[in-house]
Amino acid sequence: MRLKTLEINGFKSFAQKTILEFENPIVAIVGPNGSGKSNVVEAVRFVLGEQSMKSMRGKGGSDLIFKGSKNLSKAARAAVIIYFNNTDKVFKLTNDGGEDVNLNYDTISISREVFSDGLNKYILNGSEVRLKDIHNLLSSVNIGSSGHHIISQGESDRILNANAREKREMVEDALGLKIYQYKIKESERKLERTNENMKEVSLMRRENAPHLNFLKKQVEKFEKTKEMQTELGALYQEYLKKEDLYLKGEKDNLSAKRTKIENELKNVADKISGAEDTTSAQGEKKLEELRKVEENLNSIRSLKNEVERKLGRIEGMIEMEERRREQKSEIVEISQEEIKQVIGEINNSIDEAILKNDMAEVKPILKRIKNVLKKFSPDNKAEVPGSSEIDKFKESQEKILREIKELENKEKEASKSAENLRREINEQMETLRDLEREKFTWKVKHQELKSALEFLLIKERNLKDRKEAFENEIKEGEALIGKEALSFKNYQIENNGEAHDQEELRKKIERIKIKLEDAGLGSGAELMKEFREVSERDQFLAKEMEDLGKSIESLEKLIADLKEKIDVEFKEGVKKINVEFQVFFALMFGGGHGSLAITTETKRKRIDESEEGEETEDAEDVIIEKGIEINVSLPHKKVKELHALSGGERSLTSIALLFAMSQVNPPPFLVLDETDAALDEANSRKYGDMLEKLSKRSQLIVVTHNRETMSRAGVLYGVTIGSNEASKLLSVKFEEATQIAK
């Protein structure tokens, strides 16, 4: 299994799709500070399920999405996809039921997306999965959640600062034991659920036992009730048959009567509705005609008033012009100004009339008036109008008078139409009163029929109640004597019987029912059915407890085996790590010793209270927790405590330990983010030698500024900030890389 490709899109500074290929054992990523090269490391953390926003230098999901720039818009989401070669089919995954999930693919792809609202999606080969599934999948190939395979600048000595328990977890993760821890936790959850189920089943069986014993005694009593049930069955035959015949006959009788009354009601209702519809429709039609005529009349009157006002203005113009002819020449200019004002007013009034009125016969007349009046405008003549102009005004006057006459004729015609319609409406109202009297007679008949129908419905309800009582009686009979109660249907009877006969039968039935109910055994069929069901339930619960007990034993054994396996492999793994740790430690420091030691710590799981209320420790609950401590001894120095090491010494120690851990159970790949930053030239060469050794068993992705480290890489990727303020990737040569890194 090998890492093939990393695809980044919209993640942090990588605005556009960026693809890194890992075909070489060592791939170096270089670039100046701020170019976004460490975002490649964080993209790897992100896609492998990292939940700590601090480790990805963010506060929330939205901080991981490209923010936008002058030339690029803000991204809607951030997505990272990592591809693994799976031709050897090493990836494994099981579902919650413990069944293997089909991963028969040559390439495994894991995708993670985050949206601006913080929503995360995890996708495995195109199918959405849970974060838990991603962790379990990666654990199967020794990529754990502790991040031992991703070492960033400033975090290389994280293992040195961790406490003993945290160091143990990191070592377990590096040894590939995390998958067993997941299985233990899952088994413990199953064990807890199984124990709860066992308690519930045990409680249900205890609760079931008294009732089962009671039913056994009731079955014994049941045999004594046979004689009463036989007698009751004979009485039911006659009583139920007679009741059934009566109910059917009465139902048919009432149904026929109701059909007859409903038909009569419908006929009467149709007559009432027909009268209402005819008179109402005619009245509405006449009223609508009257409304339209009155609207037309009002429109004619309004137009006539407007034209009369125009006539008054024309007559005023004629009078004014006649006076002007008699005035002196020195006031000609003033008269012309007055004429201009009057004509302007007339024009405005005519325009207003044209706009407000839609009557086709009025508009041409008003337009002709306007054209005639334009000839009298002072703009057309500089002189005071003469006799010909006055004649034209008088001609306009005559036309307006004719128009008024036409409107008066139309007004008379509309008034006459309105009056005729009012008279017709009054006549129709008189006819309507006659129809109302006839309609009242039909309504009385309608009410009588409704009363008869209501009385009939009461009878039907009473019959329905009697029918329900009959059905309940059948159910009670079934409860007391079983299905034999239904055999009344085949019972032969000569007549329906009198009511008092039925009453006598009912009393006999009630007396026997009371005796049977006092016995509390019912029909026996229900009792036997319940006894059988409760017995089967008890047997099922007993089998369930047996199965749960076996499951508990199996889970406890599995947990014990897994813990033993972890313990054995942990101890063996520590031994192997110490061998490699010593080699790397001596290489980095030119001698000295470095090793891991397993520590133990005793703890109490819980404290119980004694019967006297005193707190007592339960000796069986004492647990021993194992941890890891790191011992070092530098050459030519007396320093043996981690806290006494310098920063550089701590860095070399942690690098040596992490490299040793990766050698024992090599992860598919290691990401080293500027872990060589503090090394001098000599140590850089040693660091480079270790990289080449590590690359034989794990792929290496190295973020570096170090020239020596770059020289060991098969492929160099340069990360720079483009003109669009987004990171872009370049495949560069070694000489170019050293310049870019600066």
From TrEMBL:
The keyword Coiled coil applies. Keywords: Coiled coil. InterPro entries: P-loop_NTPase, RecF/RecN/SMC_N. Residues 177-338, 390-480, 545-572 form a coiled coil. The keyword Coiled coil applies. It holds the Pfam family SMC_N. Residues 3-726 form the RecF/RecN/SMC N-terminal domain. This is RecF/RecN/SMC N-terminal domain-containing protein. The lineage of its organism: Bacteria, Candidatus Nomuraibacteriota.
